[in-house]
Amino acid sequence: MGKPTKGYPPELRERAVRMVVEIRPQYPSQWAAIEAVASKLGIGSAETLRKWMRREEIDVGQRPGMTSAEHAEVKRLKREVAELRRANEILKAASIFFAAELDRPQDRS
Fold first, then answer.
1. 19, 41 in Cβ contact below 8 A?
2. Per residue of the chain (109 residues), what is the pLDDT tens digit?
3. Rounded Cα distance, 65 and 55, in Å
4. HSE (CB half, 13 Å, CA atoms) of 35?
5. How far apart, in Å, are the Cα atoms of 100 and each of 48, 51, 59, 104?
6. CA distance 50 to 70
7. Burial class for 8, CB neighbours closer than 10 Å (0-12, 13-18, 19+)
8. Could you write out the DSSP letters of every residue in 36-74?
9. How far apart (Å, rounded) are the C-alpha atoms in residues 9 and 39?
10. CA within 20 to 30 Å of 37's CA: 16, 21, 44, 70, which one?
11. Helix 10-23, helix 30-41: angle, nearest 10
């Protein structure tokens, strides 16, 4: 899976998702299975586990959406674009500075 959720170790997250998948047939709905696993593992909110389940379903292709890997790549590319924009601004400022230096009349004595 992708980046770990703050406060819960990735091992717990993976175990919880696996448990929901395994015990789902014993419950009338996925939500009931999620609530049972969340309480057994001490996860603060069943909604937290539901979100982990949705992320897992997207990652394995059972549900449409952006996978964790795609999300991480987009995030990395956004950081890179921001860094490149900052570098461009610095280069523009430097070229303006040096162009102004070249345009000044020089005293040649």
1. yes
2. 555 446 899 999 999 999 999 999 999 999 999 999 999 999 989 999 999 999 999 999 989 999 999 999 999 999 999 999 999 999 999 999 988 877 777 776 6
3. 9
4. 7
5. 58, 56, 54, 6
6. 20
7. middle
8. HHHHHHT-S-HHHHHHHHHHHHHHTTSS-S--HHHHHHH
9. 16
10. 70
11. 140
Work out the angle at residue 15's Cα, subtended by the Cα atoms of residues 13 and 19, and round it to the nearest 5 degrees. Answer: 120
Structure tokens at 16: 């919880």
Smallest Cα–Cα separation from 48: which of 29, 35, 32? Answer: 35
pTM beyond 0.85: the answer is: no
Is residue 16 packed enough to be buried (19+ CB in 10 Å), middle (13-18) or exposed (0-12)? buried
- Both tokens of 76, joined, read 């990395």
